[in-house]
Design goal:
The complex is a heterodimer.
Chain A lengths: L6 H14 L15 H15 L11 H13 L1 H21 L2 H13 L4 E4 L15 E5 L2 E11 L7 E8 L2 E8 L5 E3 L14 E10 L4 E2 L8 H33 L13 H29 L5 H27 L1 H4 L4 H8 L2 H4 L4 H18 L1
Helix pairs in contact in A: 1-3, 3-4, 3-6, 3-7, 4-5, 4-6, 6-7, 6-8, 7-8, 8-10, 8-12
Chain B lengths: L6 H27 L5 H10 L17 H13 L4 H21 L2 H13 L4 E4 L15 E5 L2 E12 L6 E7 L9 E7 L5 E3 L13 E12 L3 E2 L5 H12 L5 H20 L1 E2 L2 E2 L4 H29 L6 H14 L1 H10 L1 H4 L6 H8 L9 H11 L1
Parallel strand pairs in B: 1-4
Antiparallel strand pairs in B: 2-3, 3-7, 4-5, 5-8, 6-7, 9-10
Helix pairs in contact in B: 1-2, 1-3, 3-7, 3-8, 4-5, 4-6, 7-8, 7-10, 7-12, 8-9, 8-10, 9-13, 10-12
The chains are: A alpha+beta, B alpha+beta.
Chain lengths: 376, 380
């Protein structure tokens, strides 16, 4: 047992810390406008520095999880965008990509040269793998994609979009270029939070895909690909939720120390101090659980899947709680639209519904428990 | 980072689970119902090596590290041992015996530790007073040096194992004006002149653990029973906090693991509306609530234990976080477990009402949740 990060993980954290302190990089936390061009240029600037820092090539585990928390504590949207775009596609390519696909896409992704999006959700396919309606048919040696995806984050910014679709009775990933003929991004949705992700619907109207741009996971149970995409989202959301808690705690602690009318700062009141204590307790508990889940995944531990779901549910639910407590402490300042805490209140709600939604995750956790009892 | 237990630790955990499930847990229901201390079970814990697990071998222990010790405590809870016996074990091994192990002279260690390890002797710690709970510096029990002995006067309250203890580590002040710096610890034996215990208190939970007042009326304690030197008692009491916030709360987490298994089995077997209730989402949600709490709590509890194993100075913040989380956030899963069994959950025979009652102590004993919040908010 060892609760300390490995030396290589600490080095990664140091490099990310240096980037966060680099005044030459645009501050993602200061991003007010959410036009795709503005977000895109900022995201690319960060990817081009995160790549050489080793962030984009870091294997899943406590090191990457810690680094994500650190980045999210400054900018939840940036940490999430990197994780569920280039990070997720890089992970899928590392697992299922051919050597040629890895050379063409994986290396540039790891260097921070590509913005990527993964298109999964459909209007009538929530969490069930059998309801995907997007299909690919063969035509003249190529595959032709047709269907629609309801919420694709980063789609308007992406150089490459990985589309999950049915083909020949299996689920596969189709790598298409952003802006490719027949691939139509709708207007970004007016979402409650995380507007920087430019989430939009995606129409696929006969998009032609060469066979060497298709990844078909071998020997996987049906739905395995969807599970992997969702698991990638889950881990990202858990880590970003932990970073969000840190951010909210820091903001609230600073605000609580400032004297206001009445002669003493909010921290002079026990109820405020106790709220801060609750926030820190939830924050530390969530971080440890997320780190343990990340370790379990990297170590192929028997409980890895269950722990990942536990971490996702605990971190995302309590990020909402911590953000609410921070808002209460910050009062009117926290209620201003562009205040980091006001954003966190809105953004944190995504964690409850994305990846495995809370209720679905809880059912899966219980399923594991029931199976263990049956086996024992 | 590496959150894995060693092969040896896991093997020992399995041994503890089997032993406790076979020999100890079946006795729990009766002793809880009758609010009786289980002397036989306590001795068996000693014979199995639990009571002195972390003592050096020369004092009757096994020299186990803290993580292994905490793992054993969690396994006892997971085997279904009642919270009362587990609390008695914690007060005995960590609050009493460990204080003698860490701060006692060689003679004191040789005299008391083998008996405490075997269970031949039962230990307790006398710190809390009617007017000095979490505010240790306010304790009023006095110790006055008279030649080759000390005279102790005062009283203690809420003392786990008080009515059954053979050996008590008692905190008293040799100089009330010096506040913290006057607090000292003494080893007081049963039968010592002027020392008596009150009748067991009737508690909501942890009933098989006997809790009482202790009275000191010109109690004569030999000077050689001073523990760790005059004026060092406050720091000694603080050092028990590491155990309070790892080994003493681990059994609560283990008990909820036991509750989870019990609930899952029940949910698979119980039929309603033509199918097992495990198929209902609301039932599964309760199982998930338990599982999530257990995994979250483990990370905190073992962090405190691991830090102690590394010889790191006590981090009061991390210890308080662990105690607060287990104390306050265990209430919902414990309630969920009891509710899942419906009417059966409310009945003694099904144990979940006992786990609910026992677990309620976690946010009160060893420093209330409010005290933990005070500590956290002060240190953060």
């Amino acid at each position: 047992m060892n609760y300390d990060l490995d030396a290589s993980d600490k080095e990664l954290l140091d490099r990310v810390t240096a980037l966060l302190n680099d005044e030459n990089l645009p501050d993602p936390a200061a991003l007010q406008r959410v036009e795709a061009s503005t977000v895109g240029s900022l995201l690319r600037a960060w990817l081009q520095r995160l790549g050489p820092a080793g962030y984009l090539a870091a294997p899943a585990g406590p090191g990457l999880t810690s680094a994500r928390m650190l980045l999210a504590a400054r900018s939840p949207w940036l940490a999430l965008a990197v994780a569920i775009g280039p990070g997720l596609l890089a992970d899928l390519l590392a697992r299922h990509g051919s050597p040629e696909q890895q050379q063409r896409f994986l290396e540039p992704l790891r260097r921070g040269r590509l913005v990527a999006a993964v298109a999964l959700s459909e209007p009538r396919a929530g969490s069930h793998p059998d309801h995907l309606a997007t299909t690919a048919r063969r035509d003249d040696g190529q595959l032709v994609l047709s269907g629609s995806k309801s919420t694709v984050s980063l789609a308007p910014l992406a150089d490459v979009i990985a589309v999950v679709a049915e083909s020949d009775g299996a689920q596969a990933l189709f790598l298409i270029d952003g802006g490719q003929a027949g691939c139509v991004c709708g207007s970004p949705l007016d979402t409650l939070g995380y507007r920087q992700l430019c989430t939009c619907p995606l129409e696929l109207r006969g998009v032609r895909v060469a066979p060497d741009r298709v990844m078909v996971p071998d020997g996987r149970p049906r739905g395995g690909l969807l599970q992997q995409v969702r698991a990638g989202w889950d881990a990202a959301l858990a880590d970003v939720a932990c970073g969000t808690m840190r951010l909210c705690l820091e903001q609230a602690r600073e605000a609580a120390a400032v004297e206001r009318a009445g002669g003493k700062p909010p921290a002079g009141y026990q109820s405020v101090r106790f709220a801060l204590a609750e926030m820190l307790t939830l924050s530390q508990t969530a971080e440890l659980l997320a780190l343990r889940a990340a370790w379990a995944g990297a170590a192929a531990d028997r409980q890895a899947a269950s722990l990942a779901l536990c971490a996702k549910v605990f971190a995302t639910e309590n990020a909402c709680r911590v953000a609410d407590l921070a808002l209460q402490i910050m009062a009117a300042a926290g209620y201003s639209r562009d205040n980091p805490v006001a954003r966190a209140v809105r953004d944190s709600r995504l964690g409850l519904i994305a990846g495995h939604p809370g209720q679905v995750a809880r059912q899966a956790i219980a399923g594991e428990v029931l199976q263990e009892v049956e086996l024992s | 980072m590496d959150f894995a237990f060693s092969e040896e630790q896991l093997a020992f955990r399995e041994q503890v689970l089997r032993f406790a499930a076979r020999e100890i847990a079946p006795r729990s229901a009766g002793h809880d119902l009758n609010s009786e201390f289980d002397h036989q079970a306590f001795r068996r814990l000693g014979e199995f090596g639990i009571l002195g697990l972390h003592f050096p071998e020369e004092f009757g222990g096994s020299g186990a590290d803290v993580v292994t010790t905490v793992l054993a405590g969690e396994a006892l809870g997971e085997a279904g041992v009642d919270g009362g016996l587990l609390l008695s074990y914690g007060a005995h091994s960590f609050l009493c015996a460990d204080t003698i192990l860490v701060h006692g002279s060689d003679e004191q260690r040789r005299r008391y530790l083998p008996g405490l390890a075997s269970g031949e002797l039962i230990g307790c710690m006398g710190l809390t007073e009617p007017g000095a709970g979490s505010d240790v510096a306010a304790l009023r029990t006095r110790a006055e040096r008279r030649g080759d002995r000390y005279l102790l006067n005062g009283s203690k309250i809420f003392i786990t194992n008080g009515p059954v203890a053979d050996v008590a580590v008692v905190y008293a002040t040799v100089d009330a004006a010096a506040k913290h710096a006057g607090i000292s610890a003494f080893i007081v034996e049963r039968g010592c002149k002027g020392f008596s215990a009150g009748p067991p208190l009737h508690k909501m939970g942890v009933r098989s653990s006997q809790t009482s007042e202790l009275f000191f009326d010109d109690c004569e304690v030999p000077a050689e029973n001073l523990l760790g030197g005059e004026g060092n008692g406050f720091l000694m009491a603080l050092q028990t906090v590491e155990w309070d916030r790892s080994a003493l709360i681990a059994p609560f987490v283990g008990s909820l693991s036991y509750a989870l298994k019990k609930c899952a089995r029940y949910a698979r077997q119980r039929q309603q509306f033509g199918r097992a209730i495990a198929e209902f989402q609301a039932v599964r949600d309760k199982l998930a609530t338990l599982k999530i709490f257990i995994e979250a709590a483990r990370g905190l509890v073992y962090r405190v234990a691991w830090c102690k194993d590394q010889g790191r100075p006590l981090n009061h913040l991390e210890a308080a976080v662990a105690k607060l989380f287990v104390g306050d956030w265990s209430l919902e899963p414990a309630n969920a477990a009891m509710t899942l069994l419906g009417g059966y959950g409310y009945c003694h025979e099904y144990e979940l009402e006992r786990i609910f009652r026992d677990g309620r102590l976690a946010s009160i004993g060893g420093g209330t949740s409010e005290i933990q919040k005070l500590i956290i908010s002060k240190l953060m």
